[in-house]
Specification:
Layout: E1 2-5, E2 8-9, E3 22-30, E4 35-54, E5 57-81, E6 84-108, E7 111-118, E8 131-143, E9 146-155, E10 168-170, E11 172-180
Length: about 180
Amino acid sequence: MLYENATGNLSNETDMTLQGFHVGATMENSLSEMLFLETGLLVSLKGFKINEYIDGVVVRNKTDLYYLDVPVALKAKFDLGAASKWYVTAGPVFDIGVGGNYITVYDWHGANQTEKEKIKWGNNEGEINRFDVGITFGGGIEFGLWQVGVYYDLGLMNIASDTNQDNILKNRLWKVSVGYKLGGK
């Protein structure tokens, strides 16, 4: 997550990395022997965490954002022989927020208190914009019916609903995917 506010780029000051997942289905349409249009529908967990130390209390904030992702990418495949190919892919990705939580854990002297609040989607102060548009690109290897790839999604929209635009939140994520081709192609 890229997170900036009036004091600077918080993404560079702390490890905000949150492990998530993506699961779903994609399909390829052949445009030529080596060029394909790939689209799909994925459910993804995105978000970030921030750990702070405030007046002797460790405060762990975690934001879980669940999205439906619709990638539309151009995919080029190159033959490696023995039923293997390597590929590169790039294109837009359209994201729709469907749920999520803010989770805050206060830890002082071994005692924990946890608060959980549902994400509010919208355009008002303190809400998260439901829609995001980004660019996805990556590559990988296909061997037989299996595919393994690494991708990077670069969110282009500010998903923070802040009327004075002091806060900027943009989705940024690395993905590792393993896929199996149904239908034998």
